[in-house]
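Re-run requested by the PI after the first attempt was lost when the workstation crashed. Everything re-entered from the original request form. Ligand of interest: S-adenosylmethionine.
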Amino acid sequence: MDKQSHIQIHETAFFTSSFRAFNEALSADKYAKLWLNPKTDAWIQEYLTEVSSEETYTHCLRNRFFLETIKDLAASKQIEVLINFGSGFSMYPFLLDESLIHIEIDKPEIVNYKASKIEEWQNEKKLPKRDLHYVGVDFSEDYKTKLLEQIQQIKGGKPCFILIEGVLFFLDKAETDGLFSFFNLIQTDGDYVGSASFQDDLKSSTAFKKLLRFLNKKVSKTSESDYLTLQDSYYKSLPDYNLIDHQDYFSLSKTYNNTIHLKPDLILNEHFYVLKKQLQS
Ligand SMILES: C[S@@+](CC[C@H](N)C(=O)[O-])C[C@H]1O[C@@H](n2cnc3c(N)ncnc32)[C@H](O)[C@@H]1O
């Protein structure tokens, strides 16, 4: 069965944006609240009670970490383009300097909906104008040739940061391998990738068991093996890339003075990686 067909828009992209809006000081995302709506709000309250009340803070810190990483690289002129794979409703374009070019890639129904809402909010002066390009693609289909052409047309030879967060958990290993080899095709020496994923030990945690129970009850029947986890070794062995930063919820909590409320077993601890393409001469 197609996993994505029963994990719907408000269970993924809307969820993530709501968590970011719940603690703006921690996420540093003052625009996430635009996506709040009563339906998602009701689901989120159940999710926080039944899965993990720490989820607000894990999502806020993920946003904060990638936002600050990208901001620093843009300020030092190391990147000029941000390409967000599975961008959902994230609001990085409006939180970053207006000189950056943005390519937002997600399923067609998501990018179309996002583009229309962004335009509406820009017309109402709720959001600033940005250099934004949307591309609708399904990573489980044959997308590479056309997408490469579209990306190269927008990006030309400019240095870029590719972001993939909150997505790999829902893909399978072949799709993930396909994406990372595609990143290598897009990028040149000195470019960056930021990736978020869970490690194998997540699946033995109480938090994951609760998540699975919640998804089975609320979304559809899935099993443990439907959700992808990756070890550090995956990132360390990617050809042409060096792992230059690795954080998780616990390390970021220290950096940003976040108080951890629950025991580790009750937290869905996501890991965050920054890779730099460095070709051997
Ligand atoms: C949990 S949301 C995360 C969104 C965003 N990256 C963020 O952190 O706010 C997951 C996103 O991945 C996208 N996604 C999942 N599977 C995909 C696929 N096969 N092709 C394209 N996009 C996909 C979903 O449409 C959704 O927008």
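Saved to the shared folder this time. The pocket of S-adenosylmethionine is lined by residues 4, 12-13, 16, 86-88, 90, 106-107, 110, 137-140, 165-167, 170 (CB under 6 Å).
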